[in-house]
Design a protein that fits this description.
Helix content is about 40%, strand content about 25%. It is α/β, with parallel strands linked by helices. The chain has one domain (about 5-270): Ribokinase (UDP-N-acetylmuramoyl-L-alanine:D-glutamate ligase), CATH 3.40.1190.20. The chain binds 3-hydroxy-5-(hydroxymethyl)-2-methylisonicotinaldehyde (PXL).
Length: about 270
């Protein structure tokens, strides 16, 4: 069974981060080995939250893994709780990532706004981390942060999104997937590689939901690790999220408890 180390937080409410990576990767027939960056009562988009930063435990936690002499087929990173965690993750990738695909979801912000626990300093470190990745999955706001561009200008000129994404390609970073690009009726994910770009469109159902970026990165990471093409993995992720949103009745513009993805795990179990 292929193994994926997932470095992300554990949130008690919000259906995000490890709470979605674990069931999703398991449904895809992969072993998900979690490294918690923080433990939260609920994700930070709720009015209040309690967070325990796990930074001081990461080195001894990972040291035990070093003793086991394990390797990973993929490494996926998400929400980080401190700048120091980036240095620890860079060391982790050097040690365990010799034969791994490295996925970095540069979790920092959404809809033009930084998440509560993020600031400019940690964003600089996240930028460093993306340079080690083979595949990155920023949303549009995160793409702008990575490129040092004004989000409000970019949403007025979406024709530049492809150019911005390709500026992040390198010898190491072969694929940039810009997620959740919204128009009035559609929401699209743009795949940019050296050889060209492609877009996966879905109907835009309105609203904004916790955890959909984490569901996306988990499905894409799982799919590609299993041998799917990038396009097919992104299509599966978009379809899975679309079905999950339809199954999530909400009156809110922003749903902090995320989407009801559980009934649709069968889509992932059956995916080839
Ligand atoms: O889904 C991104 C995310 C992950 N983890 C935590 C968060 C957020 C977004 O708000 O607060 C704890």
């Amino acid at each position: 069974m292929k193994r994926i180390a997932v470095i992300n937080d554990l949130s008690g409410f919000g259906k995000c981060s490890l709470s979605v990576a674990l069931p999703i990767l398991s449904a895809m027939g992969l072993e998900c080995n979690p490294i918690p960056t923080a433990i939260l009562s609920n994700q930070t988009g709720f009015d209040n939250f309690h967070s325990v930063d796990f930074t001081d435990h990461l080195i001894p936690y990972i040291d035990m893994w070093k003793k086991q002499n394990v390797q990973f087929d993929a490494i996926l990173t998400g929400y980080l709780a401190s700048e120091k965690q980036v240095d620890i993750i860079l060391d982790f990738i050097d040690h365990f990532g010799k034969n791994s695909l490295v996925f970095v979801d540069p979790v920092m912000a959404d809809d033009g706004v930084l998440y509560d626990t993020y600031d400019e300093k940690i964003c600089e470190k996240v930028k460093m981390l993306t340079k080690k990745a083979n595949i990155i999955t920023p949303n549009l706001t995160e793409l702008c942060i990575l490129c040092g561009t004004d989000y409000n200008e970019v949403i007025k000129h979406p024709e530049y999104i492809g150019e911005l994404a390709s500026s992040l390609l390198s010898e190491t970073t072969k694929t940039v997937i810009v997620t959740g690009i919204k128009s009035r009726t559609e929401i699209s994910n743009l795949i940019v590689e050296k050889s060209g770009s492609s877009i996966v469109f879905s109907e835009f159902l309105g609203g904004s939901y916790s955890g959909t970026g984490d569901i996306f990165s988990s499905v894409v990471c799982g799919g590609i690790t299993k041998g799917m093409s990038v396009f097919d993995a992104v299509t599966l992720a978009a379809d899975f999220i679309y079905c999950s949103i339809i199954n999530t009745p909400t009156e809110l513009d922003y749903e902090p408890n995320g989407v009801n993805f559980q009934k649709h795990l069968e889509m992932l179990i059956n995916a080839k």
